[in-house]
Design a protein that fits this description.
The chain is about 25% helix and about 30% strand. By secondary structure, it is an alpha+beta fold. The strands form three sheets. The chain has a six-stranded antiparallel sheet with strand order 4-5-6-7-1-8. Strands 9-10-11 form a three-stranded antiparallel sheet. It has a two-stranded antiparallel sheet with strand order 2-3.
Length: about 190
């Protein structure tokens, strides 16, 4: 992701973010999967019957794979190519323009040097899946981003504050370095 952000910064285009609503429910199953009747939804006429699933469910081990396969096939049908090294990166070139799409489970970040390509991507995705457009990329995978004309700035202050809050350490004493400066290994001298 950092390489993608560096490339976007170098090419001077903004990255945007979309979120797929109920991503795992979008995957179609290729094999037969049966589940027992959930509590509260038992069929009183057939209490020992099971249900055959048509689509993936959360918690089903096939769900992430089936979601990615459906999304991947959709993007490939729209003229995108999978990255050679990173299979979650999709690239589409149109004349001298390019759009880059990075998928992380149900979060999608994308950017282009041509805003029309971004608008077409958003329209295609929202036409196929239930999506939320989250706007310009500002927070992703624990990284806060600030995209400016003269560069993209990353920091993890929100992530760090959330960690401190989780472990009830908001009021802990700050230290400039995470290790004592008088540690034994720092006092050892190199032999002559």
């Amino acid at each position: 992701m950092r390489l993608l952000l560096a490339y976007a910064c170098m090419c001077n285009f903004k990255m945007h973010q979309m979120d797929v609503k109920s991503a795992f429910l979008n995957g179609f199953l290729n094999e037969e999967v049966y589940v027992s009747q959930p509590p509260g939804f038992e069929d009183h006429l057939y209490p020992n019957h099971v249900f055959k699933l048509k689509k993936a469910l959360y918690g089903l081990k096939q769900a992430p794979r089936q979601w990615y396969e459906r999304l991947s096939n959709f993007l490939l049908s729209k003229g995108y190519a999978k990255g050679a090294v990173d299979k979650t990166l999709f690239i589409r070139k149109h004349d001298n323009d390019v759009i880059l799409v990075q998928v992380y489970v149900d979060d999608i970040i994308f950017g282009s040097n041509n805003n029309t390509l971004c608008e077409e991507f958003v329209a295609a995705m929202q036409g196929e899946f239930e999506m939320s457009m989250m706007g310009e990329l500002a927070y992703f995978l624990g990284l806060q981003l600030k995209q400016l004309k003269h560069g993209t700035f990353l920091n993890q202050s929100k992530y760090c504050f959330d960690l401190l809050k989780k472990f009830k350490m908001e009021d802990c004493k700050e230290a400039a370095t995470p290790i004592a400066t008088n540690a034994l290994w720092m006092q050892m001298r190199l032999p002559n």
